[in-house]
Amino acid sequence: MGCSCTKGIRIKSPNPKSKPQTLKLTPESFITSNSKDFTDVYTMGTPLGSGAYGDVIQVIHKLTNQERAVKIFLKNKDKHKDSSYEKTKNEIEILKKLSHPTIIQIYEYFEDEKRVYIVMEKCYGGELFDQITTKKSLNESVSALICKQLFSAISYLHSNKIVHRDIKPENILLEDSEDFINIKIIDFGTAIFYDGGMMKELSGSSYYISPEVIQGEYNEKCDEWSIGVILYILLCGNPPFAGSSTEQIIRKIKAGTFNYNSPIWDSVSPQAKDLINKLLCPALYRLSAEEALRHPWIEEKGKYPIIKSPILNSVIENLQSFNGLNKFKDAISTFITSQILEIHETKELREIFKSIDINGDGKLSKEEMVKSFACHKEILNRDKYIEKIINDVDTDGNGYIDYNEFIKATINRQKLYSKDNLKKAFDIFDLDSSGKISAIELEKTFSLGTNKDSIWQDLVLKADKNSDGEIDFQEFCDFIENLSDKDFLIN
């Protein structure tokens, strides 16, 4: 581990008469409203773009020196009469609940009298729109990979009762230049929680809006229509419903007729055209994202690159050694993986997750893991082995391993608990910048409510070797290093 310790500490056993307390933390637990002034925490950088309800700017976190992106929404003077303010708050609530490799990650948010700030991860490859403009069209394999990721994300959103409603190339970012295997859907400003009824609000962008949205009565399949438009553009460089004005484009979308007359379509496979036809059709007959993932063209052309054995072996070893972390250590791991690690540090693990997620639903089942690890003959009694891994790694108890759980369990432990990462976490916990962490600061950071104060008081008591009532950085490192799975268990 990166934080060296010269002497171990003895952890006292909890009072057997005390009532067990619960420490159940997910990445959402740390996505909270930061009460500090935004400019006290971040340094403003260059503009990155604009979304449906705000501008996006590059920023640097002053404590960790990490680059992030912030979406800034300017509030109306009377926020109670400002529907766009409510949409911004709704966007935050939606993003907090999402854990998928193809959906942008939120870190925290701020609000002052004039603005709301949503801090998210920064991608470095620009918009998919720019790639289309530059390259004019993409080959079928790249197009299928892009659409496979979009269908996976939309399938995941729809299964969680969320509809994006503005899928377009401008809202799809590449993590790095020409990295089509790692894309991110952004801008959830028009996204909505969906109860299964019909939506009526006009929402979306010309070229990509579905005919039923224009008509004013639609369901979640408006997102699949938008992906169909994107696929058409990816393969030929032009939209299926073009026009010199928004009115003309809308008329063509309502008519629903498009063609493959351009010579470029002569070299496109019938399977690709079949998928487009099954997306750019009336909603009643349109494929769902889940069905589109099983389309022969996606299955044949949209295959992720084969993961090299050493990397996969490392993932298996880390999964095997995860073994149910001590509750507090698990909380620290969750914090570092969701709030500290940068996008490039988890790239390989993200690609492995997507390759294991055979049905593309954004979570790993026992069956998918058994199939993915079938070639590893050294794993004996594979079913019980995988079942144990899921039991250990499945923090939220839903029977699957979701994306954040997978990253936390497979990241290299030395990297995870490096001195640099622990220092970044420590500095964020140290809310008053005193160089020490108090029980009150831990309680505020972990947001469990005031009825959990004794958890943090007990923790400080165990970690505080010099008995000054707080934890300094070396004590923090020593405590994390010496925690075993039997120490400081909180049921």
UniProtKB/TrEMBL annotation:
SUPFAM superfamilies: EF-hand, Protein kinase-like (PK-like). Residues 42-298 form the Protein kinase domain. Residues 344-379, 381-416, 417-450, 451-486 form the EF-hand domain. Keywords: ATP-binding, Calcium, Kinase, Metal-binding, Nucleotide-binding, Repeat, Serine/threonine-protein kinase, Transferase. Its cofactor is Mg(2+). It comes from the Eukaryota. ATP binds at K71. It catalyses: L-seryl-[protein] + ATP = O-phospho-L-seryl-[protein] + ADP + H(+); L-threonyl-[protein] + ATP = O-phospho-L-threonyl-[protein] + ADP + H(+). Residues 1-23 are annotated as: Disordered. One of its GO terms (molecular function) is ATP binding. It is an enzyme of class 2 (transferase). SMART domains: EFh, S_TKc. InterPro entries: CDPK_Ser/Thr_kinases, EF-hand-dom_pair, EF_Hand_1_Ca_BS, EF_hand_dom, Kinase-like_dom_sf, Prot_kinase_dom, Protein_kinase_ATP_BS, Ser/Thr_kinase_AS. PROSITE patterns: EF_HAND_1 (PS00018), EF_HAND_2 (PS50222), PROTEIN_KINASE_ATP (PS00107), PROTEIN_KINASE_DOM (PS50011), PROTEIN_KINASE_ST (PS00108). The keyword Transferase applies. The keyword Transferase applies. Its EC number is 2.7.11.1. Monomer. Belongs to the protein kinase superfamily. Ser/Thr protein kinase family. CDPK subfamily. PANTHER family: SERINE/THREONINE-PROTEIN KINASE. This is non-specific serine/threonine protein kinase. It comes from Stentor coeruleus.
